[in-house]
Amino acid sequence: MDHAEIPTRALKPEGIGARVPRKEDARHLAGKGNFVGDVVMPGLQEVAFLRSPLAHATITGVQIPEELAGRVFVREMLEGALDIQSPSSIPGYQYSEVPPLAKGKVRHVGEAVVMAIAPTRALAEDLLEEVQVSYDELPVYHDAASARAATGEFLHPGWKDNVFLTLRMDRDFEKVAAQAEVKVSRSVELSRQCIAPMEGKSVMAYWDFRTEQLVLICATQCPHLLRAGIAQHLDMNEEYVRVISPDVGGGFGYKGMLYPEDMCVAWLAKTYKRPFRYLEDRREHLIVGANTRQHHYELTAYADRNGKLLALDAVITIDGGAYSYWPFFIGLEPGQALGNLPGPYTIQGYRCETVCIGTNKPGFMPYRGVARTGVCFAIELLMDAVAREVGREPWQVRLENLVPAAQMPYVNIANKHFDSGDFRASLTRALEMVGYESVRERQARGEPDGRRIGFGVATYTEQSAHGTAVFAGWGISVVPGFDQALVRMTGDGGVEVRVGVHSHGQGMETSFAQIAHDVLGIPVSRIRVIHGDTDLTPFSSGTYASRATVMSGGAIATACKELLPRVQSIAAHLMGVDAHSVSLLDGRAWAGEQSIPLADVGRAWYLTPQDLPPEVHLGGLEVSRAYKPKVDTGTFTYASHAAVVAVDTETGHVEILDYVVVEDCGTIVNPMIVEGQTIGGIAQGIGTAMYEESPYDDQAQPLASTLADYILPGAMEMPRIRIEHTETPSPHTEFGAKGMGEGGAVAPPAVIFNAVNDALRGTGAAELRMTPLTPRRLLQALESARLTREVAP
To answer: Which residues, 6+ apart, have CB-to-CB distance to 5 below 8 Å?
Structure first.
């Protein structure tokens, strides 16, 4: 990987903008991480689930041998456990509940029906072999079309059809579309896939008799939110529930909600006052976790003869699966798709309908880049189609339509508030980096091995750190607001930073320490970030939506700024100088050439209070502050990606020869972490584009339940990636930061498909518009073109 440094500026040695090595890597590279699966407790019982082999059926009976009493459970036995609820006041939303174990009927293959406990997972599975479940099959809705055509036996009681919800937006569409000279229509489709973190669902629960608490040790992105969900659905007061989240082996949205398995394990611990644990295996994940990305787009662009977009018309259909998970995850994809489809372009008229349909598949989950991977794929393929229609280069049409930097801040047609940036400059620089003109020359020459060269580009925006102003409009019971941070100086001059968000690989222990160092001048090695325990940390709704650096980072910065004058005041008194002359650097308080270690300040407050100034601040050396941006409609990270590919028309193999990124996430805290996030996202985006697919047959049976069938990209599939940073700080956030955790995964499908379609120009092959771009689909397009040529008169 290559990278370019961010613009030169004055930096504190380890502060914001510095390439500080990740503190977390010391334990992870040495195999010393602490995950749910590493926890050992006396008397621990492992949990296994008997899962439905059918996609839609009534449960007519469950036969459990008498000798298994107390070791095997069905829904009726879970007294005091409520079905998981996800209400919303959005008009037309059809409500559903998720039972911890199937109740009356099953709605997708892999739904948990029976639970068993034993000293080992293998023994628990052996117990389930003795259980007999009988079913009466019901009509199966294997896709959105079959579900929408249903006239009865809908997924949930009280439903009038199989549609979870429909959202619509119309902004001057008819008036603007009537002015267009060019009309281009396309259908675009993303296949269903898994999220596939390295660690699957993981939860352990036990009863702490000392504190009288139900304790969950869980791989979750949202410890405080999970605590609220467990308390609500087990009818407990929150102070009697504690959630501890240790190291988490990847989340990407998959670990941001309350699952039935969480409820079951928590109920066992509450009821039996013993420790229980469930660890999802890979096959369970591939069956029950096949729950994201499946969108279908019908798009029409209205433009003038130069390709300048005037209006956009779209119908987006989302296969939402069988359930909406708590607090309201079924609404994320439709809402984000509706609002983000126009992307970074200056469209004057917009009409869109987004329909989320219930089917007999696992319930939809948010995955890195929620909906934006799909909308970027759709709008960027459409932009290339417009360019072909008007006879211009795709990059020329994009430059014609991207929001100009001079118009920032800019409110687009879908009411997205772009806070800052230069979209056109990012695209221009990406073209320079990839050597666009030389790529076209290479195409014209042809390759000695007969492969065809193609070039693709895409520009996207990533709405990040959106808060109350956005979520409150969804009519849901859980709305994110302020994030809190507690900063405390220790008696020997170190610092503890406590935050409610939790890391699942983003390097928070490093970047948050850098933010505190930037204000307090204390070495990063002396700053300890404490997170992942609801008893030890202030509240946050959690880590999602690329919000942690903006929200919790902002809270850390404001808390440190309030702590700073308290430290300066004590240090000034100890040195006999004016407090305004004191600055902090390298763990010392300085006044001109005079300095003392900050340990002296801590010692005075905690151990020798007789040395304190008379007017010392009674808040001491501990500050807790809440933060959210005054404008919390979101920050907008953006980037342009460009790729060069070589397509073998004999085998259908696609090789990515070059991949460049020009990204802007506002003020960068740690460029190395930004690059790691970008590369990881691109790897997942390449998976979406070329490899990952969870297909189903017409009985909604999953056809990719092992890693022999579900293909993940590995090191050999990753191209050389070159990243260049620019910085346009957000005017709304504490130090100009924007979220960027999801962006890398957004653009790759659009870029790669555009590059392959560019390579196939002149072959007669139809555009490829459905993920993943497999050799078979590519060869089918070429073969169809060949047959068309042969039968043409």
So the answer is: 671, 725
What is the arrangement of strands in the sheet containing 57-63, beginning at the earlier edge strand? 105-106, 57-63, 132-137
Give me the phi and psi of 422, to 5 degrees please. Answer: -135, 85
Antiparallel, parallel or unpaired: β 495-499 and 527-530: parallel
Nearest to 550 by CA among 780, 319, 731: 731
How far apart, in whole angstroms, are the C-alpha atoms of residue 793 and residue 656? 37
CA-based R_g, the chain, Å: 28
Is the bond preceding residue 275 a cis peptide, omega within 30 degrees?
Answer: no
| E strands present in 288-340 | 290-292, 295-303, 309-321
Instruction: Give the mean model confidence (pLDDT) for residues 85-105.
Output: 93
Backbone angles phi, psi at 779, to 5 degrees: -65, -35
Helices (H) and strands (E) in the chain, counts: 19, 33
Q: Cis bond leading into 334, ω under 30°?
A: no
pLDDT tens-digit readout, 557-570: 999 999 999 999 99
Residue type, 317: T
Listed in sequence order, the DSSP H helices in 539-697 are: 548-575, 598-606, 671-686
Mean model confidence pLDDT for the chain = 96
Note the pTM of the prediction, 2 decimals: 0.96
Q: Cβ of 749: how many Cβ atoms within 10 Å?
A: 29
Which residues, 6 or more positions from 278, have their beta carbon under 8 angstroms from its beta carbon? 46, 47, 48, 49, 201, 202, 203, 204, 261, 264, 265
DSSP per-residue string spanning 81-144: PPPEE--B-STTPPP-EE-SS--SEE-STT-EEEEEEESSHHHHHHHHHT-EEEEEE-----SH
Beta strand ranges found along 635-709 (DSSP E): 635-647, 654-664
Query: What is the b/e burial string over 250-284, where b = at least 16 CB atoms within 10 angstroms of the residue's CB?
Result: bbbbbbbbbbbbbbbbbbbbbbeebbbbbbbeeeb
Tens of pLDDT, residues 8-30: 444 568 999 999 999 999 999 99
What is the full DSSP assignment across 501-522? ---SSS-HHHHHHHHHHHHH--
Distance of CA 52 to the CA centre of its chain: 28
Q: Which two tokens stand for residue 245?
A: 């989240």
> Using an 8 Å Cβ cutoff, are 230 and 243 in contact?
yes
pLDDT digits (tens, 9 = 90+) for 123-170: 999 999 999 999 999 999 999 999 999 999 999 999 999 999 999 999
- Is the per-residue pLDDT at 628 higher than 60? yes
In one-letter notation, the amino acid at residue 651 is T
